[in-house]
């Protein structure tokens, strides 16, 4: 059956992940055909840097698709069907502070976890609320597929502000990326694996990995492998050193807690002191990503602009970020009911956790959006961890929406990477100073 063509708007299109996302759209052009692609970013210079490369790629592979670049939010969402959102409020300049300021206090310096994730969450909430309002002015029925981090905090905030909007889906590509890595280890097709998972975003565990073709749960085999071998991502050869270290820590976490397979991000909550001590306060992941992905992509785009052709240049191809986003949209658009790890309001998915938590779990994506699979009660250890982390998330959102300093200190003290209220205060005061353009607390 011929598939209806879609209009897609990318928000935060100046991200250097965009060319690879375009690569995924090209790759999937028959499965998720486009009528129009809108690339929107508030920073025109970020779009301009990549515009010619993107235009040339689209002209070559999808010449019938209308392409529209804009920095005007009133033009970005007109009659759109899918919004792929990947904005970073404050860009890499602010990511740099998120990662480096906590290290001054011996705390984890990470963009989505700990004090850095808190500061980033506080920056993301308001622009994300503004974005949803703007989208609904122009496209009442558009699906909003959100990647913007910290997705855990953004998801709670959007659910609080827009509780009845059924077309907002928050997603993370880390479970997808881990499944891809598991599949490589087990020598099976990643699309033949159907996961079961519970937790919060960047704070969860795989409990089952069913092989659809045989019905076998592959978790025992994988646990056996990870007991004896270092865990490496599927694309270890292309990964920066900090990511390889992150994957290795899954082996360490499993030594202590072998029950389930942990998401890599749990390393920051189980080993905060070791990780902070090992970090270089002068060179964090932001520097690594800038020197790696950002430089590589911007160099290719500059060459395309200078020669006005793609000659000698690669088609940047999304392996995870882009592929997952397009597969998610495809499953919704054509009611494919494919199973992903998604975020959803808990209600009764995990009956012994708060109903209003935005849990991460397996679910089918249908034309009505996510249909999360009920998980059941979680055991005491996990319940304790999750309630604590959710209390941190909820207080962060409240601190932001109410400009409430006391709630911010409470949130940071609850965060397992901080714990000490004196440290919470010191790091909060520093973060507040550099973020004054984005958020204030009283
Ligand atoms: N959920 C996930 O698993 C996942 C995976 C990868 C990336 N991400 C997130 O995707 C986003 C992009 O990451 P990046 O490292 O490529 O970022 P980046 O800093 O390279 O690019 C982000 C872009 O967003 C733009 N922007 C900022 N505020 C905006 C607004 N209000 N409206 C429109 N555009 C705006 C910036 O100008 C910039 O060009 C981040 O939030 C990142 O954390 C999430
Ligand atoms: O440090 P970065 O900017 O390279 O990546 C941070 C993100 O990491 C996870 O996602 C992906 C990433 O998008 C992709 O490019 C690739 O490197 O694989 C990662 C997953 O292994 C994470 O899920 C995101 O939330 C982070 O933003
Ligand atoms: Mn993520």
Commentary on this structure:
- Belongs to the glycosyl hydrolase 4 family.
- Pfam families: Glyco_hydro_4, Glyco_hydro_4C.
- The active site is at 173 (proton donor), 265 (proton acceptor).
- Substrate binds at residues 95, 149, 285.
- The chain is of the alpha/beta class and 442 residues long.
- It has a domain at 6-170 and 286-315: NAD(P)-binding Rossmann-like Domain (Rossmann fold).
- 49% of the residues lie in helices and 16% in strands.
- It has helices spanning 18-27, 44-61, 73-76, 91-104, 114-138, 151-161, 174-186, 219-228, 241-256, 267-270, 272-278, 285-307, 321-333, 380-402, 405-414, 421-434; strands at residues 6-11, 34-40, 66-70, 82-85, 143-146, 168-170, 193-200, 203-211, 261-262, 338-345, 358-366, 369-372.
- The strands form 3 sheets. It has a 6-stranded parallel sheet with strand order 3-2-1-4-5-6, sandwiched between helices.
- Helix 2 (44-61) links the parallel strand 2 (34-40) and strand 3 (66-70).
- Helix 2 (44-61) packs across helix 12, helix 4 packs antiparallel against helix 16 (421-434) and helix 14 runs antiparallel to helix 15 (405-414).
- The longest helix has 25 residues, at 114-138.
- The termini are far apart.
- Bound molecules: nicotinamide-adenine-dinucleotide, ligand LEZUNG72 and manganese (II) ion.
- The ligand O=P(O)(O)OC[C@H]1O[C@H](O[C@H]2[C@H](O)[C@@H](O)[C@@H](O)O[C@@H]2CO)[C@H](O)[C@@H](O)[C@@H]1O binds at residues 112, 149, 172-174, 177, 285, 289, 320-321.
